[in-house]
Design goal:
Structural class: mainly alpha
Low-confidence stretches: none
Shape: elongated
Number of helices: 4
Distance between the termini: 68 Å
Radius of gyration: 17 Å
Helix content: over 70%
Largest sheet: none
Strand content: under 5%
Length: 68
Amino acid sequence: MIFPPLVFVILYVVFCWLLGYLGRNAKFGFWGNFWVSVILTPVIGIVVLLAQDSRPDRNKANSQARQP
């Protein structure tokens, strides 16, 4: 055995963390993208990440609502 199974688990979690980091400004945010990748595999996590819209800017939305 070249790699022990723990190395695969660590790489899996690191890749899921990376997808969460890339999706931190997406609709699901960091934790949503991270858990989608952990539960449904990182391949599906990439698809979900690419299909998401970006998160709306709360400050911009609040300032537009106050203007007459």
